[in-house]
Design goal:
The complex is a heterodimer. Chain A is an alpha/beta fold. Chain A has two domains: 26-62, no CATH class; 65-207, Nitrile hydratase alpha /Thiocyanate hydrolase gamma (Nitrile Hydratase, Chain A, Alpha-Beta Complex). Chain A has helices spanning 30-44, 50-61, 65-77, 79-87, 89-95, 128-131, 141-146, 151-157, 194-200, 203-207, and strands at 105-109, 114-119, 167-172, 178-182. Chain A has a two-stranded parallel sheet with strand order 1-4. Chain A has a two-stranded parallel sheet with strand order 2-3. In chain A, helix 3 (65-77) crosses helix 9 (194-200). Chain B has a domain at 39-120: Cyclin A, domain 1, CATH 1.10.472. Chain B is built from six helices and no strands. Chain B starts with 10 loop residues before the first helix and ends in a 13-residue tail after the last helix. The chains are: A alpha/beta, B mainly alpha. Chains A and B meet through helix 1, helix 2 and helix 7 of A and helix 2, helix 3, helix 5 and helix 6 of B.
């Protein structure tokens, strides 16, 4: 199989790939070559197919913070759904045909008394099926080291100042337990349609480093 | 790596002496850099390889915590030298060799093949491996 078809061919799927420099004269770097080598060997051995790889790349590209935002907006609009989401996110998300992925996801609710924020101090565990790939800062040494010890100072770097009267809880993720934050609904947005609510909810609010504002 | 702290009451010292470089919660560090790089196709491919291998429908072939162990065992030098998805693909290869799914020889030869094909016919635009990070 040529490297230019099979797992590398996006076929009819024609999205742009930003940050792809001119490669014509550059030798292929070692680790990118390793990724191709491992993929080709696993396909040759029948562990998965080229189609599996292609469709998985596309499926993971379809996972974006808009999914987490839809869940949060529904939770704001529907208290019964909110209770189900907090109790069992997988089952609640399935009501909206949203896949939370193989790892359990706990949804932690921000209130007037408590602000929650997520980290993975040991690596980079993240609710990727609900939020897409994690931002670079989430994986950075500085965030992972500091947010668990000085959360208010780190949140302030994101422009988020938490009232001293509110407790701050930091949730440390693992390979087997992920967290998503249900932000507080901004005042004045009660009764808004869900899609309008969802548009207010950012990735960073679902990680807990920001709060949601009505714009 | 672990060594006894001099003062038995020095709990923090004991924790620091016993922990490895990836275990960074609570350590001193600088401000959070919020700049973002766009993912190269080979990074998305590496991500997809892991998802497929970790799919319970395939066994799974390897689990997410095994990916993590492979990364943690790299040692501080390599860990900090490699980018995020470089650590991933290196760990995936290591774990697959441990499990006997792939051999070091196969991977080495295939990397040479891939690079030779790239040198003969570099991709004009998008899709293939990607040469930078």
């Amino acid at each position: 199989m040529s490297p230019h078809d099979g797992p590398h061919d996006h076929g009819a799927h024609d999205h742009p790939h930003p940050n792809q420099p001119d490669l014509e004269d550059a030798p292929l770097a070692y680790y990118p070559a390793m990724a191709d080598a491992v993929a080709e060997l696993l396909i040759e051995k029948g562990v998965f197919t080229a189609d599996d790889l292609r469709s998985t790349i596309d499926y993971m590209a379809s996972r974006t913070p808009a999914l987490g935002a839809r869940l949060a907006a529904r939770a704001w609009a529907d208290p019964a759904f909110r209770a189900r989401l907090l109790a069992d996110s997988k089952a609640a998300a399935a009501e909206l045909d949203i896949d939370t992925g193989p790892a359990p996801v706990l949804v932690m609710e921000n209130t007037d008394a408590v602000h929650n924020v997520v980290v993975c101090t040991l690596c980079s565990c993240y609710p990727v099926f609900l939020l897409g790939k994690s931002p670079d800062w989430y994986k950075s040494r500085n965030y992972r080291s500091r947010v668990i010890r000085s959360p208010r100072a780190v949140l302030a770097e994101f422009g988020t100042v938490i009232d001293p009267a509110r407790e701050v809880r930091v949730h440390d993720s693992t390979a087997d337990m992920r967290y998503m934050i249900l932000p507080r609904q901004p005042e004045g947005t009660e009764g808004w349609p869900e899609d309008k609510l969802a548009a207010l909810i950012t990735r960073d609010a679902l990680i807990g480093v920001c709060e949601v504002t009505a714009g | 790596m672990s060594q006894s702290p001099k003062d038995p009451g020095d709990v923090r010292g004991a924790i620091e002496a016993g922990r490895r470089h990836h275990d960074m919660g609570g350590r001193d560090a600088g401000p959070v850099d919020r700049s973002q790089h766009a993912h190269d196709p080979w990074e998305n491919k590496t991500d997809a390889i892991l998802r497929l291998l970790a799919d319970p429908a395939r066994g799974p072939v390897m689990r997410i915590d095994e990916l993590r162990r492979g990364i943690e065992e790299m040692g501080p030098g390599i860990y900090d030298e490699l980018s995020y998805y470089e650590r991933w693909i290196a760990s995936i290869a290591t774990i697959l060799m441990e499990k006997g799914v792939l051999t070091a020889d196969e991977i080495g030869r295939k990397i040479e093949d891939v690079r030779a094909r790239h040198a003969d016919a570099p991709p004009r635009r998008e899709g293939f491996g990607g040469g930078t990070r």
